[in-house]
Amino acid sequence: MSLETQTRAGVQSVRIQPLRAWWFAAAAVAMGAATVTAIAQATGRFHWWAGFVLVPGAFIAAAGAPLLTRGGGRAVTGYLISWVGAIVFAVGAMLMFGVMAEGWPVMIILPTLAVAGTYIWRPEHPLARAFHRTIATLALCGAALGVMFLLMSGDAVDFGDTDWWGGFMMAAAVAVALNGLALLRHQIEYRLQAVTLAVFPALILFLLGLRFIRGDWPSHF
């Protein structure tokens, strides 16, 4: 096979792959929209006007799929577009079922998961990678906080008068400190300064969270 034939075959393959991804994504989101609508109608919680949010969200999510298959910066763009569509779709689904008042923590969970998922595109430089990893792990803490709000909204969890959110402050502090300490493995310039900037604020945040969760934070000064 000549070089020209191989080049043409490669170009054709690149063109077909995003097209297949588009059709697959379009079919998936169309089925998702149809499923949500059918369940809402069957349960008597159907709000037809929510379709004006649900359907565009499905199309936005599908629009990012072809870019995800191309790699590089286009894949990042496709990832963000797909997550925006997923968030809009989730809003439409909650409006369709009329559960926005109970399901609002989903609007914390989905964006934070989207940020956490960007970890797969890691920078090359250790300092930039540590910063990005810190943001991703903090986003995971935010997603966990959203899940906790969702459980509390559904009366599955009740902490009473305890300042439970102090535990999430402590978890975030541990994430920042560990990512900062990981820089000690690399021989880079300003390593100790970067570790200090991560560990000391994290220590203060951890101690604050500990005081909150123990309930010994002074109510007056």
From TrEMBL:
Signal peptide: none
Top-rank taxon: Bacteria
TM region positions: 21-40, 46-68, 80-98, 104-122, 134-152, 164-182, 194-213
Keywords, in A-Z order: Membrane, Transmembrane, Transmembrane helix
Listed name of the protein: Integral membrane protein
Organism of provenance: Phytohabitans kaempferiae
Upper lineage: Bacteria, Bacillati, Actinomycetota, Actinomycetes, Micromonosporales
